[in-house]
Amino acid sequence: MDLTIAIDILLFIAGAALVIFGADWLVDGASGIARRSGLSEFVIGATIVGIGTSMPEFVVSAVAAIRGNADIAIGNVAGSNLFNTLMILGVTAMVLPLLFSRSNIRFDMPACIAASLLFLLFSLDGTVNRYEGGILFLLFIAYIWYNIKKGKGEDGGEDTAAKEPPMAVWKMILLILAGLAGLVLGGNLFVEHGVNLAHEIGISEAVIANTLMAGGTSLPELAVCVVAAAKGRGQMAIGNIIGSNISNILLIVGFSAAITPLNVLSVNLLSIYAVAASAVLLLLSALPLRTSRLTRWEGALFIALYVAYVVGIIMLGN
Predict the structure, then answer these.
(1) Which runs of consecutive H residues, i.e. helices, occur in 127-265?
(2) Tens of pLDDT, residues 12-29
(3) SS3 38
(4) Which strand (E) or helix (H) includes residue 74?
(5) What integer pLDDT is reported at residue 41 of this predicted model?
(6) pTM to 2 decimal places
(7) Among 134, 212, 264, 295, which residue carries the largest CB count within 10 Å?
(8) Domain spanning 3-317, CATH architecture
């Protein structure tokens, strides 16, 4: 193996590790502050944890946008949402069939579909401009406001995490600072050496962003969901994925497009179509006229669909 490629691979992996650890530290520190502020576990999960697990995608896409790599910014979000819905929920359902709640079916999934369709609509002309990015970002603020308002009357005291002793203030601050440092440094390494690898191997940046980068930045969601399923907490897994997918589109694409208009390549447009289709597929798997759950065989189907998508993207990109 060429020494340059080997170094790029090592630094690419190091960047991914820093981003993942940074997101974990940031979530822990922010959750400690939230608990001290008296927020319920519902609000913490719907906002801080959901956004925190999307921080790797946020940093990678924002850095890519600043550097003018719009295909990476768009491809990372589209690929991450597909990895979340098809691969992570598929693997999680193989561990534990996931039961959907009425709230998932009536609000969460339709909100995810609406965000995905808006993302697709803005991408059809080949560019997500600053004005459209501003609309997405404002909708993200409205989404967070709604979740906080909905969660104010909920009692988070039944959750065991709420009964844990409060974290020391110095530790919360240290975790937040370390998390931010890991995200910034790791995000730069991840993007820079991911682009280098794409050039050296002869694969387009869009394909790398839609597959390898998307899977790498979605590792926090994968870890959260598999652990939650193993502990019999399927709702946490579902909420984490739906919340992360909405945050990916409204926060990350909105913020990145506000930095610089994002050009949408054909390979990314195909992925955006697939994102909207996967959101609809998830809702169909949960409809009351069926079992209102994602079964193991459906999880296996989701995984197979993701593998087919990756093969198709690689073939199209080359």
Answers:
(1) 130-151, 169-201, 205-208, 214-217, 219-230, 234-247, 254-259
(2) 889 888 877 876 787 677
(3) coil
(4) helix 70-82
(5) 52
(6) 0.76
(7) 264
(8) Up-down Bundle (1.20)
